[in-house]
Amino acid sequence: MSDFLPSERRAPTQKGEARRLRLLDVAAQAFLAHGYAATSIQAIVREAGGSVATAYQLFGNKEGLLVAVLQREFQSLEASVFPEGLPDLPVARMLPEIAERLLARNVTPRAAGFYRLLLGEGVRLPRLAEPLAALVNQRIHAPLEQCLRSAQRRGELVIDDPARAARMLRQLLNGIAHDARIVGGRADGPTAEDLAACRYAIAAFLRTYQP
């Protein structure tokens, strides 16, 4: 676990863990609907059930609750974008699959909502910068870099700096999702133009790094 990310505090009982997950569900919806500043732990607990004292015990404060919500979102993102066995595919199949999975996730209204929330709150909550960067590194950048390194070990890619190549590719894909994020996401998924741009970016990446 990164030094910038608190350890996940699971409840000691099954019932308590279900309540913790309920708090995270309600908190996520409240932050998306009302913003961070306009949401209180007390309001979240009223909706989710339980006690305010338990919420503070689990998350520390409202900022800790937001970080826990983000941890859960990024964990879910990693599971959907990098499923087991994907790094073992030939790179010409693996990278388009990763790219389209990441694009599809990034243009959802939920992902767009979190993106806009973080843009809006980042200035007021500068301490979020480090845990957010750590989450991006842990859940997106590191798995993508490992996929590139796996392809390189198989002789399918020749990359002088896989870490920077992974960062460049991630930024390319984020750029394709940018328009969707500004307008609140796309409930129907990526447009045909989004997908065409995604495939073009991957083809250019492969032309650059394939031997």
UniProtKB/TrEMBL annotation:
User: Does the keyword DNA-binding belong to this entry?
Assistant: yes
- Molecular function GO terms recorded: DNA-binding transcription factor activity; transcription cis-regulatory region binding
Looking up InterPro entries in the UniProt record yields:
Homeodomain-like_sf, HTH-type_TetR-like_transc_reg, HTH_TetR, Tet_transcr_reg_TetR-rel_C_sf, TetR_C_Proteobacteria
Keyword Kinase in annotation: no
Q: Domain named HTH tetR-type: which ranges? A: 17-77
Instruction: Give the record's keywords alphabetically.
Output: DNA-binding
- Output the Gene3D superfamilies linked to this UniProt entry: Homeodomain-like (1.10.10.60), Tetracycline Repressor, domain 2 (1.10.357.10)
DNA-binding region, as residue ranges, is located at 40-59
- One Pfam family name is TetR_C_7
This chain belongs to which protein, by name? TetR/AcrR family transcriptional regulator
The beginning of the lineage is:
Bacteria, Pseudomonadati, Pseudomonadota, Betaproteobacteria, Burkholderiales
